[in-house]
Amino acid sequence: MRTFFVIVALSFSIAIMVSIPAGVIANQKATENLSEDYNKDNKRY
User: Fold this and answer.
1) Complete DSSP assignment for 1-45
2) pLDDT at residue 45 tops 60
3) What is the C-alpha to C-alpha distance for residues 27 and 33, in angstroms, rounded to an integer?
4) First vs last Cα of the chain: how many Å apart?
5) For residue range 2-34, what is the model confidence (pLDDT) as tens digits?
6) Torsion angle, CA of 24/26/27/29, rounded to 10 degrees?
7) What confidence score (pLDDT) does residue 26 get?
8) Four-residue CA torsion sign, 23, 20, 22, 32
9) Overall average pLDDT of the 32-40 stretch
């Protein structure tokens, strides 16, 4: 029974380690797109 809990805990930690960098990269891309659009709008005036 203990091995089952260890496997579950390891799979959770691996899932978290995989999902956090993906979220960070997506946030960086979204921020870059927003700042590019903002700069384009500012250059018009």
Assistant:
1) -HHHHHHHHHHHHHHHHHHHHHHHHHHHHHHHHHHHHHHHHHHH-
2) no
3) 10
4) 67
5) 999 999 999 999 999 988 888 888 888 888 888
6) 120
7) 87
8) positive
9) 80
**Matching residue, tokens 């380690």:** 17
Please tell me what DSSP assigns to residue 1: -
Task: Report the C-alpha gap between 44 and 32 in whole angstroms.
Answer: 19
Q: Which residue has the tokens 């496997």?
A: 7
Q: At which residue do the structure tokens 């700069």 appear?
A: 39
What residue type is 6 in one-letter code? V
Give me 10's structure tokens. Answer: 């390891």
Q: How far apart are CA 43 and CA 27, in angstroms?
A: 24
Q: What token pair was written down for 33?
A: 């797109």
